[in-house]
Structures are given as structure tokens and as C-alpha cells.
Specification:
α2 packs across α4 (135-143). β1 (2-6), α1 and β2 form a beta-alpha-beta unit. With 185 residues, this protein is an alpha/beta fold. It has six helices and seven strands; from the N terminus they run βαββαβαββααβα. The radius of gyration is 15 Å and the shape is globular. InterPro entries: MobA-like_NTP_Trfase, Molybde_CF_guanTrfase, Nucleotide-diphossugar_trans.
């Protein structure tokens, strides 16, 4: 299984690259790279073509779509036979417990193993293990102009699990949310 740090978004609401924000005394990119390296054969950072990284990276290959689906598809294009443990760079509360819980719950007979978002009760696509069998479904969604990885997950046989702590799944997207997250650390 490979790891993928989703970092190719525009960060327009935050006003700066979310992967470079520090929550743990290091950038999110560095923190998540080190964390995923404990569990994955290889770890990559998903980047848009305007970004650079000192870590192994995969540039987004599907430019027409502004969606996390682009990074996931690009990872599968890079290594289609590998499972991908995907984590978004804007989730500062993801820790070893989160990753360990997800991996222990993994069901390779399903197309993915995902946490259920506790607020909206849908599969949380931004911290999920995607099995190689889901790649054709993701590609078909892209080809049909659908950009929601969550919708693809909702329409596939996946294993859905509850997070031991819903806070683990919180995304930080604005300066106000960042300030609030720093207070909780």
C-alpha cells in the first residue's frame, strides 16, 4: 500500500498553501509524510503543476477538474495495481491512532475502506484506503464529468467505519478554523 498526501488544491479560502501550515512543530506535509511512512511502502505528495516539494510527489494529471479526485486518479495512473492510503493535508488531527484504526479495519475485498463523516453521514473521501479495484470507477466518474470522490465511494461496495474520535476527520480550510485548531492542540 502506498500513501498519498492530497495537497494539490488552490487553498483559496485559507489564503496560503495548507500543506505548509504547521500544527505539530513542522509542516503538515512533513508531519503526514513521516506518519504515512510508518505504514506505507512509499509515500507521495499530490501536487498541482504550480507547486514543488522536497518529498516524492505526483503531479495532478487531470487538470480539467478541480477536485481531490484529480490527485487520487493521478496516484492510480502512477501505480494502478497499488492500494492508496489517502490523507488530505488539511486534516491536522489525523494521528497514528487514526491511521492504525483505518488500516486494522481495512477490507481488501471491498473497493475502499473509509470513515463515515459523523456530521453528514457520508464516506469521508479525504482519509480513505482506495483499493486498486476502484480505479476504473473513479476514472469513469472523471470521464463523465463527475468530480466527487465521495459520490463514487457512496455508489460502490466499501467498508464504512466510525472514527474513534470524530475530531480526527476535521478539515481546516480558513484562517478562523486554523486559529481554533491551534487552540485545541
Amino acid at each position: 500500500m502506498n500513501g498519498l498526501i492530497l495537497s494539490g488544491g488552490q487553498s483559496s479560502r485559507m489564503g496560503r498553501e495548507k500543506r505548509l501550515i504547521q500544527y505539530h512543530g513542522k509542516t503538515q506535509e512533513e508531519y503526514l509524510f513521516e506518519l504515512l511512512s510508518l505504514y506505507c511502502e512509499k509515500v507521495f505528495v499530490s501536487l498541482n503543476t504550480n507547486q514543488q516539494s522536497d518529498y516524492p510527489y505526483i503531479y495532478d494529471a487531470f487538470h480539467e477538474l478541480n477536485s481531490p479526485l484529480v490527485g487520487i486518479l493521478s496516484a492510480f495512473q502512477h501505480e494502478p495495481k497499488q492500494a492508496w492510503l489517502v490523507v488530505a493535508c488539511d486534516m491536522p488531527f489525523v494521528n497514528q491512532e487514526t491511521i492504525q484504526f483505518l488500516i486494522e479495519a481495512r477490507d481488501i475485498s471491498q473497493k475502499a475502506t473509509a470513515f463515515q463523516n459523523p456530521e453528514e453521514l457520508f464516506p469521508e473521501p479525504l482519509i480513505t484506503i482506495y483499493e486498486p479495484s476502484i480505479y476504473p470507477d473513479l476514472l469513469q466518474a472523471y470521464q463523465q464529468g463527475r468530480k466527487s470522490a465521495m459520490r463514487v465511494l457512496s455508489q460502490q461496495p466499501i467498508k464504512l467505519i466510525n472514527a474513534p474520535d470524530p475530531q480526527m476527520l476535521k478539515s481546516i480550510n480558513t484562517p478562523a478554523e486554523y486559529e481554533e485548531a491551534i487552540k485545541r492542540k
